[in-house]
Amino acid sequence: MKVSVSLPADDIDFVDHYARDRGTTRSAVMHEAVQMLRRRDLAMDYEAANDEWVSSGEAEIWNAVTGDGLR
């Protein structure tokens, strides 16, 4: 899908330099940037879920029994 975006000149310069150094295209660089944002957001979601799990007390219960049967 073709999309038009507006970016400041220094961002375009950065994207072009990044693409040139890696032998790729602006589109590939933008695709990589979007993937990185998705991974970052996913990591933040996992961190929030873990914090919620710990604060609920469930982590403490789980940790009390994780070693059962491993002797």
From TrEMBL:
- Matching InterPro entries, A to Z? CopG (IPR002145), Ribbon_hlx_hlx (IPR010985)
Q: Name one GO biological process term.
A: regulation of DNA-templated transcription
Q: Name one Pfam family in it.
A: RHH_1
Domain Ribbon-helix-helix protein CopG positions: 2-39
User: Which residue ranges run through the membrane?
Assistant: none
Q: What is this protein called?
A: Ribbon-helix-helix protein CopG domain-containing protein
Q: What is the lineage of its organism?
A: Bacteria, Bacillati, Actinomycetota, Actinomycetes, Micromonosporales
